[in-house]
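Regression report. Comparing outputs from two consecutive submissions.

Submission 1:
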Amino acid sequence: MCDCSREDLLDEFEAASNTDIPLPIPEPAADEFEKIWSRIQEERAESADTTEQAGSEEPGEDKVIRVRFGWKRLAAIGLIACLIAGSGSIVAVGRKSYFFRERKDEIGSNGVVFNNDMNKVAVNGEEEAYALIMDKLEIKPLRLGFVPSEMSFEEMQMEDGVAYMSFRYKDDFLYFIQSKYNTEVSHNYKSEEENVTYNKWLKEDLTIRKEFHKDNKVTIETSIIIEGAFYRLVGTVEYELFQQMAEELTF
């Protein structure tokens, strides 16, 4: 896999760590790192078994040690694993940062930015998140009555009386934001297209707003105030899916 010398390989490592040029690495599969790490562990185990067998042979016998995995190959695969893991993190963080970069003052109180991991709350799924909202914010949590099969709960963050729930759907994100209502969380959303849909559970019309970005991404948002609580659903999922989720919001 790698025919270069130790010095050349170290030079490559140093050059890669110092470059600011983005690498053209596609987004990896979710379990790519685990697969590579599993291969490394298997090769290490096989190498150790071979060495033990050679050491247990009687003196005078011909010893044949086959090392399938040299240090250069191990180092190269380790580098690939690091790059893959790093590229995945860059993609994920990049999507979050992009989504809130121009609208942070509209998301929650006091300009809260969602991608601050220091505010992350340990919850095991959205049901625990709803329970925490009721306990900590003392408001009735609004729930997603419809969740697509491919959508997964990612994480929850809380700051200054605002709860943020993050969901992942394929390559898109959806955020569900809830708080006590006050003038600081009232929003001035920059919409370029608006449509109205009816939620039969809440018996309310919901205005769904679209904001178009230069990279052809579309941000979709709707919000409502009920009994002194503020609720917002915002994401980059396709419009028909977002509309169905908005229509199925329920207590």
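Submission 2:
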Amino acid sequence: LSVADLGNLVTMVWMCICFTPAFIDADLPFDTTDLAYLVSAIPHFAFTRVSSSITAFISLERCLSIVAPLK
């Protein structure tokens, strides 16, 4: 869970860097918006899904341990 959250943070930091005006206005051979979506938005979506799935699994496991303890 912590690795997925770290992945969320790293991809969001990169997205913030890609959308700064200095980075957008730089004369780069690629489109910064396309790069931001490809390298940051898609992995961020994947990390968010993994983090949500792990959290849901942990919650389900806790509920089952209350309903049927030590079975």
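Expected: both submissions complete independently.
Actual: both completed, but the second showed a warning that disappeared on reload.
Relevant detail on submission 2: The CA atoms of residues 53 and 59 lie 10 Å apart.
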